[in-house]
Write a structure and sequence with these properties.
alpha/beta; 7-stranded parallel β-sheet; 6-stranded parallel β-sheet; 12 helices
Length: 319
């Protein structure tokens, strides 16, 4: 099968392109948002092909994966076909709804010619899709293996653009956690965070390749997930694969992803602060919770189950 998909979410796409198909990625000279092409920081197979927009009409596209509303117009202009009518199409929604939750209407609501695929059951519950059929294919992770050593008595946080995203990703909570244990904040545009938030023991670590980032995360004793409102972060699942214990806000899909014994989750920040301090100072308990976290995440968020779910979705769309 020849699948047209834009490079929007690198970590998710890395798992998706491990499937048995040919994946066509638009590429433009500036490698902008609508033509980013292949990833530079992830290892993708040769079945992922870059195609210039002007060449897409020459390609035999079997199905289109839409991820942003304006991509429908790109398909019409670049392929000369209407998604869901002239070419099978699936709309993949990565995000939790925002705005007037839980009344938020999805951009493809009442579109029975499409299938709307969510990455979590929470997102499926909270988006209003109207008459559009929906499916859930939970995340899949390429297993990096158990790497946790916990040799550094620090907590790791992974968040991109924390100053702009603010309360959504719990940036305002970091000083409270940082008061009881040193934090290492990984991600894009995190360099100013320690100084701006007045966190003398925090460190910012930007833009590491994925393999090195996994190694560095695994050296930290605990994974801290302070995010209030977003979809289920792949970095959390990756940390659990590494064997890291988790301390997280019990919001959105977290209550499903982190079962009892795999970490500490709560909506009470005082309880999370106590748990973080305890685990950073107790390597044995951290190791025990991290072992359980890895067992749980490998079972539920493995790559085989993820790819099988997408085979069902693509098979139904092209039938």
């Amino acid at each position: 099968m020849r699948v047209l998909i834009w490079h929007v979410h690198g970590s998710w796409t890395t798992a998706f392109v491990q499937g048995p198909h040919t994946y066509l990625l638009p590429v433009t000279p500036d490698r902008g948002p609508d033509g980013l092409g292949r990833a530079s920081t992830w290892d993708w197979p040769a079945s992922v092909r870059e195609v210039a927009p002007e060449r897409l009409r020459d390609e035999d596209v079997d199905v289109v994966i839409l991820q942003r509303p304006h991509e429908e117009d790109l398909v019409r202009r670049w392929l000369g076909r209407r998604p869901g009518i002239d070419v099978p199409a699936v709309y993949l929604e990565h995000n939790a709804p925002c705005g007037d939750v839980p009344l938020t209407r999805h951009p493809v609501a009442d579109r029975p010619e499409l299938t709307l695929v969510h990455v979590t059951h929470f997102n499926d519950l909270c988006w209003d899709a109207g008459r559009t059929p929906t499916r859930v294919v939970e995340h899949g992770i390429i297993d990096p293996g158990r790497r946790w050593t916990g040799e550094l008595a620090r907590a790791a946080v992974v968040v991109n653009d924390p100053l702009r995203r603010g309360r959504y990703v719990g940036t305002d909570l970091l000083p409270f956690f940082g008061a009881v244990t040193p934090l290492d904040i990984f991600g894009m545009r995190v360099g100013d965070v320690p100084g701006r938030l007045g966190m003398p023991t925090a460190r910012a670590i930007e833009d590491l390749p994925q393999a090195r980032m996994h190694d560095e995360l695994a050296r930290r004793r605990v994974y801290l997930h302070p995010i209030r409102w977003t979809s289920l972060g792949l970095s959390l699942l990756e940390a659990m694969h590494l064997g890291m214990p988790v301390v997280a806000l019990a919001t959105t899909e977290i209550v499903e992803a982190v079962p009892p014994g795999a970490g500490v989750i709560s909506t009470r920040t005082d309880e999370l602060i106590k748990a973080l301090k305890r685990l950073v100072n107790d390597p044995a308990e951290a190791a025990e919770l991290g072992k359980a976290a890895r067992e749980a995440v490998v079972d539920r968020y493995g790559l085989t189950r993820f790819l099988a779910g997408w085979e069902e979705v693509l098979g139904e769309a092209t039938r």
